[in-house]
Design a protein that fits this description.
By secondary structure, this protein is an all-beta fold. The chain has no helices and 10 strands. Strand 3 and strand 4 form a beta hairpin. The structure holds FE2/S2 (inorganic) cluster.
Length: about 120
């Protein structure tokens, strides 16, 4: 069995309107924890694993953003990540990155795509 999260894709994640703006939501796709972040009309998806300790980022379900709604935040030690790139810009894993997962919005539907 592959441990890639993207074996049988594309997968319909949710409707764009299901996500607050800004907002975030966690999913389990093929047994892997991922999350999606909405910023305006754009959505970014990442594996839900902090590069600092390899553990899920959220303590509260679906809460992946900081209080500004503009940065992804790891609840454990406060690392902050850019939603657009997954780059850690503050915290113990500064300079590391979340693992991005390609996704696309098509007619209001958010799709998780196969990794290239
Ligand atoms: S586990 Fe995410 S900042 Fe430490």
């Amino acid at each position: 069995m592959s441990n890639q999260p993207t074996d049988k894709l594309p997968v319909a994640l949710c409707q764009l309107d299901d996500l607050a703006d800004p907002g975030s939501q966690g999913f389990v796709v093929q047994g892997r924890r991922i999350f999606a972040v909405r910023q305006g009309q754009r959505v970014f998806a990442y594996l839900n694993s902090c590069p600092h300790r390899g553990i899920p980022l959220e303590w509260v379900p679906d809460q992946f953003l900081d209080s500004s709604g503009r940065l992804i935040q790891c609840a454990s030690h406060g690392a902050l990540f850019l939603p657009e790139t997954g780059e850690c810009v503050a915290g113990p894993c500064s300079g590391d990155r979340l693992l991005p997962l390609p996704c696309r919005i098509e007619e209001g539907q958010v799709w998780l795509l196969p990794s290239p």
